Amino acid sequence: MPSANAWYLRCGADEVGESAVLVGDRGRVLLAADMLEDATILNEDRGLTTATGTHAGHRITVSAFGMGAPIAAVVLHELAMLGVKRFLRLGTAMTVGDTELGEFVVAHGAVRNESTSASYLPLAFPAVPDLPLTVDVEAAVSASGVPHRSGLFATFDGFYTEMFETGSGTEPVQDRYASLARAGVIATDMETSAIFVAARALGVSAASLCLASVSGLTNDKMPHDERVAAERALLETGFGALSAHAPIAA
Ligand SMILES: O=P(O)(O)O[C@H]1O[C@H](CO)[C@@H](O)[C@H]1O
Ligand SMILES: O=c1cc[nH]c(=O)[nH]1
């Protein structure tokens, strides 16, 4: 049963679409608002900027959570309570194995190395995306012309301790990345597995499409201008995936 108003997002069920895009950076919400038709910014509380607009006849809400699984789950949970049925994470990720900077990466599942998802379902439960939505994402990615690959993600809580070689973590990060690559992991991020598990627990669909923007091998970043252009392409591709079928009648 949709709730009337969301605690932190401070918006109502009539202000959100049937689908939502979850991004980290609020700048991506502002960019999305420029790209959608008739977009309205709903709130900017706690940096959780949210906008709703239309793409090819579909109402889409775009929400920024900042960084990390706990707050991403809060945003997803509130939007699900408002009645949003489909979620697409559009973010950046770090490369693992053969993945190259600038590629789009689509998650077929995610290693649950964060703690938030366990507050929804036990660790034995797999973090897997919604299959039909992922098929639509892969079709949109193929049409985008951007080099891409699909595979497993690994999601971590510790940015400096688990994803970078700072010496503060419990094992050499490069050893961890090498074993993840051998097991089919193509990218790491900080939210995907939590979003997949929370979505299953809440009875909504979720998928994850990211831009590989930082090298897990060297920690090199994509050049700024290339990343900005690629993030626009990421949003366009995600909106295309969410608009792949006729809107469901209200
Ligand atoms: O680009 P976004 O969506 O913020 O995602 C990635 O970027 C942040 C870390 O740099 C984390 O939130 C990570 O998952
Ligand atoms: O280094 C990075 C880049 C993007 N996303 C991450 O989680 N880490």
UniProtKB/TrEMBL annotation:
A Pfam family of this chain: PNP_UDP_1
GO cellular component: cytosol
Family matches, as InterPro entries: Nucleoside_phosphorylase_d (IPR000845), Nucleoside_phosphorylase_sf (IPR035994)
Biological process, per Gene Ontology: nucleoside metabolic process
CDD domains from the UniProt entry: UP_EcUdp-like
Domain Nucleoside phosphorylase: start-end pairs: 20-229
EC number(s) per entry: 2.4.2.3
Reaction(s) this enzyme catalyzes, per UniProt: uridine + phosphate = alpha-D-ribose 1-phosphate + uracil
Signal peptide boundaries: none
Alphabetized GO MF terms: uridine phosphorylase activity
PANTHER family: FI09636P-RELATED, URIDINE PHOSPHORYLASE
Protein name (Swiss-Prot/TrEMBL): Uridine phosphorylase
Natural source organism: Cnuibacter physcomitrellae
Highest classification ranks of the organism: Bacteria, Bacillati, Actinomycetota, Actinomycetes, Micrococcales
